[in-house]
Amino acid sequence: MSKTSKHPLIVMPTEEEDAAILAAAKSDPDAQPLTDEQLASMVPLRNLPGRPKSQSRKLLVSIRYSPEVVAYFKSTGAGWQSRMDSVLREYIETHPR
């Protein structure tokens, strides 16, 4: 019984095809092959540091808001959660204990 692979067989280009591909790449100013120096300076993405740590860390909590409140803030566009945080901070400043 023969097994069929779900993955297609990879066929490497011939030397002539490879030369044609390289010539086409070199003729395109927006798609130049990387230099040896560029290749040597590459670092795997997993080795790069992530986003810098914030000075003011925020807590992840689960909370329920009225649908109207969420709809209002979402309607203000991207960054609505930060705006909601700003409104709550302003409330804290204007309503001391």
Briefly, what is this?
It contains 4 helices and no strands.
- How does the helix and strand content classify structurally? mainly alpha
- What is the C-alpha radius of gyration, as a whole number of Å? 27 Å
Order of helices and strands: HHHH
Strand content: under 5%
| Low-pLDDT regions | none
C-alpha end-to-end distance: 79 Å
The average pLDDT score comes to 89
Helix content: 40-55%
Shape designation: elongated
In DSSP terms, counting alpha (H) and pi (I) runs of 4 or more, how many helices? Answer: 4
For the biggest sheet, the summary is:
none
How would you describe this protein?
The structure is a single chain. The protein is mainly alpha-helical and 97 residues long. Helix content is 44%, strand content 0%. The protein is elongated.
Features:
97 residues, elongated
List the helices and strands and how they pair.
Blueprint: H1 15-27, H2 36-41, H3 67-75, H4 80-94
